[in-house]
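QA checklist item 7 of 12: single-chain prediction sanity check.
[x] sequence parsed
[x] length recorded as 320
[x] structure emitted
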Amino acid sequence: MNDALPEGGSALRSIDAVEHGLSGAGYIANRQISTAIYMAHHLRKPILVEGPAGVGKTELAKSVASWLKLPLIRMQCYEGLDESKALYEWKYGKQLLYTQILKDKISSVIGEADGLAEALTKLHAFGDIFYSHQFLEPRPLLRALQQPDGAVLLIDEIDKSDQEFEAFLLEILSDYQVTIPEIGTVEAVTPPIVLLTSNSTRDLGDALKRRCLHLHIGFPDDRLEARIIASRVPGIDARLLKQLVSFVQQLRALDLKKVPSVSETIDWAKVMLLLHASVLEVDLVRDTLNVLLKFEADVEAAAKQLAGLTHKARQEAGVA
């Protein structure tokens, strides 16, 4: 295993460098996030990133890959995911084709074998060829281990997979290697930077958690959210930005089935630019509330308070 820094790895020389690098890739990270990425690289530890949907967990992996100029290899988890989809599978079609081509050569393979035992031994050696690297189809986990200069491996929504799949991941997360029965142990050329994301739909096992650094990304405060929106929606008016952030922060304080995430705030800001809005008006907010809220019950609950929420947002932004 190559323990040298991957391409771009010298950029992780300090926590400040990580924060600056992520910012250059369009991801506004707080100190906690930057520290986690720094430690993950230098300690060769995966990061388990938890938090509500839409706060930037997946985007963090994308931004790390973009900043370090490493390939992003993403594996989306779901119930029933197994190693044939996550690690590797054999190219059965290619094996069958080669078998058909070579079947006429069977006599030359066996040759003048002295008895059945010797003939079977020769056939067994011939058969092993079909379970070699050239007949192996790598899936995301194996591809990540095979990258010569490293990669960013995103194991997305690990909480949607089964406990059996969690157990299967332990060897990779602890040793950056996998065991393929027909071939043996395959070690990472350069250990990837691994991020596992979870929306906490179920509790993860202690064994998996012990192998990972833990990072929780929650909803940002108003200052950080304003920086995020400004980076993702360039050209937005500063006063309008303050109004949007204030309004969304107020919405999150309401008793809603699903509060708006950062990604939905970004979408709302883009809508406001599309509509050439400069000030939040009650009618405008009502017409676009479905961008922020995804349940009709939440839309109805917020609609009852639109006048007060909009007025306060404008007041905090210094807009008459």
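[x] summary fact logged: The chain has 16 helices and nine strands.
[ ] second reviewer sign-off
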